[in-house]
Amino acid sequence: MNRTQAKILVFITALAGASCISAQKTEPIRYGDFEHWVTRNIKESAVLGGEHKQVFAVGPERTINGEEPYAPAGGTPWASSNVLAKVMGIVKTSNAVYPDTRPGGGRCAKLTTKLEHCKAIGLINIDVLVAGTLFTGRMFEPVTSTKDPYTKMEMGIPFSGRPQALRFDYRVEVPNTNSRLYSSGFGAKKTLPGSDNAEAFILLQHRWEDADGNLFAKRVGTGRETYGKSTTGWRNHHDLKIHYGAEGSSYMKLLPEKKSYYARNSKGKMVPVKEIGWADANEAPTHMIVMFSAGSGEPYMGTPGLTLWVDNVALVY
């Protein structure tokens, strides 16, 4: 190959690379820039001190005053671990997901792990550990107990695309500790070895319902990462690759039946979505679950102070 031919080959290769880049399509997930938030002003019960608390949700800007159960509006696909609870008639709130401001301006989502304290002499005296979590789906309010938290969360939204990756900006702060705390509000707190991690994942499922209203799914696509170390500032335009078919098994295994996520069936009843296998690599999904969390362990377990910031969530095709 002479020098002229080599130059032509380099030019063609560069042109092909530019063509691939220009062909890449990015589709933002609605409200995934976290510029718009619902602010809920709720007064907790007098027996708990009657404090006025703010609870946030991702969606069209509005303010809700009072203990009104939240239902998403305006087409937002996002729900979170922030909730209004009524236990034994007592109003309590939990908020571990907040709007925050990035350096240089613009808003983002801040997710943190914290202890929610609830004390009423003679009635309630509990600490519940909450890992701030954002997910596509819905939380049903009011929450009336800490038992079986997944039964209050409808996980996933209808979706039929086949993206290559989930793209987002993120930042992580991990406390300098080597322990986790378990505190469900029942029994003594437990300190366990090993620090928790923040995590991000995307699951694509093909779901169906049988004649009895049971929901089943096969896993179509999987992408998951955990973050156990603090970052130096923000990491922008990060791509979490989606692996199709059983290729995703090394990134996140099928959900065991006892840890199934829940969704509403055609009768409006919340039932577990039982993952029974891996879909063929070319299967079309029916639902998508995207989750970001300041913890990656069991419910009510984590490292207090662990914080994850997220912004500009999109799908890459």
Q: How would you characterize this protein structure?
A:
The protein has 317 residues and is mainly β. The protein has a single domain, classed as Jelly Rolls (Sandwich). It has one helix and 25 strands. Strands 5, 11, 12, 13, 17, 18, 20, 21, 22 and 23 form a ten-stranded mixed beta sheet that branches. The protein is globular.
Strand content: over 45%
Helix content: under 10%
- The mean pLDDT is 89
Task: Give the total of beta strands.
Answer: 25
SSE series: HEEEEEEEEEEEEEEEEEEEEEEEEE
Number of helices: 1
The CATH architecture name reads Sandwich
Structural class: mainly beta
| Approximate shape | globular
* CATH fold topology: Jelly Rolls
The main pleated sheet reads as: 10 strands, mixed
| CATH class designation | Mainly Beta
Total of domains: 1
- What is the alpha-carbon Rg in Å? 22 Å
In terms of per-residue confidence, which ranges show pLDDT below 50 for 5 or more consecutive residues?
4-22
Distance between the termini: 37 Å
SSE topology:
Elements (H helix, E strand, L loop, with lengths): L2 H21 L2 E3 L8 E7 L8 E7 L3 E4 L12 E3 L2 E5 L2 E5 L2 E5 L5 E14 L3 E8 L1 E7 L13 E3 L1 E2 L6 E9 L5 E4 L7 E4 L4 E12 L5 E13 L7 E7 L1 E2 L17 E3 L5 E9 L8 E7 L7 E2 L4 E10 L1
Parallel strand pairs: 2-4, 18-22
Antiparallel strand pairs: 1-25, 2-3, 5-11, 6-7, 8-9, 9-10, 9-25, 11-12, 11-23, 13-23, 14-19, 14-25, 15-16, 15-24, 17-18, 17-23, 18-20, 21-22
